[in-house]
Amino acid sequence: GDSVTQMEGPVTLSEEAFLTINCTYTATGYPSLFWYVQYPGEGLQLLLKATKADDKGSNKGFEATYRKETTSFHLEKGSVQVSDSAVYFCALHNNAGNMLTFGGGTRLMVKP
Amino acid sequence: NAGVTQTPKFQVLKTGQSMTLQCAQDMNHEYMSWYRQDPGMGLRLIHYSVGAGITDQGEVPNGYNVSRSTTEDFPLRLLSAAPSQTSVYFCASRPSGGLYQETQYFGPGTRLLVL
After folding, report:
1. List of chain A residues whose C-beta atoms are within 8 Å of the C-beta of residue B41
2. Is the dihedral angle over the CA atoms A91, A96, A31, B25 positive or is it negative?
3. How confident is the model over B44-73, as pLDDT tens digits?
4. Residue A96 has what pLDDT?
5. What is the DSSP string of chain B?
6. Non-local CB neighbours of B51 within 8 Å, separated by 6+ positions
7. In Å, how far are A86, A93, B10, B33, B81 from B86, measured between CA atoms?
8. Any idea what the Cα angle at residue A10 is, between residues B6 and B93, rounded to 5°?
9. Which residues contact A59 (CB under 8 A, 6 or more apart)?
């Protein structure tokens, strides 16, 4: 079946540091890939997505590129802020099914 | 436009008690889903619905029932709560077509503690 693997957290960074959160997936066919963010006490919000190979999703300074050859969708941001502290989930939607498959989540803590 | 709403926000149950977690959306989305979130395990799909009157099981359906009598509402029922059902529950919805058909919209969650 489909699966998503994320790097385990927590990831602790200083403000303005560079962020990478690794995500790899296993899926049949050509899934769409997503990053969701969960701020403390809230539900998940879509951060960015990519629907086909080599697509780059971007939002709020975050970027991720759909790499089919390495089955990866790593999340990056050039300069993190304290307000970016949250849990980040990588997910895929397989066109063959109706469900999202999530990774385990990575907690990011940004210190001033 | 309230999006996806869930009630209650927090609930404590004793083992064996029953309860219903409510979920409603006002975006006229056909698809609705229930997930549970446990530490280190991400979100796992419990049940989902592709439209009024149609439901199906997800990855972890045991111990939960759902029904979908209207497009707006998708309640999740625990018939006999167990400590293993202690979790945070999220309801989500998405449209069945169009540009945003793969984007799920999540409610704020219900935190459930079963003693």
Report:
1. 104
2. negative
3. 999 999 899 999 999 899 999 999 999 999
4. 60
5. ---EEEE-SEEEE-TT--EEEEEEESS--SEEEEEEE-TTS-EEEEEEEEETTEEEE-SS-TTEEE--SSSSB--EEESS--GGG-EEEEEEEE-SSSTTTT--EE---EEEEE-
6. B30, B31, B68, B71, B96
7. 22, 27, 11, 18, 9
8. 25
9. A47, A48
B99 vs A: CB within 8 A: no
Chain A and chain B share a number of CB contacts under 8 A equal to: 53
- Tell me the CB-side half-sphere exposure of residue B82, using CA atoms within 13 A: 4
A96 contact B CB<8A: no
Indicate whether A45 pLDDT > 80: yes
Please tell me if residue A4 touches chain B, with a CB cutoff of 8 Å.
Answer: yes
**By the 8 A CB rule, do A28 and A94 touch?**
yes
**Residues 11-40 of chain A whose Cβ lies under 8 A from any Cβ of chain B:** 32, 34, 36
Cα–Cα–Cα angle for A74, A88, B51, nearest 5°? Answer: 105
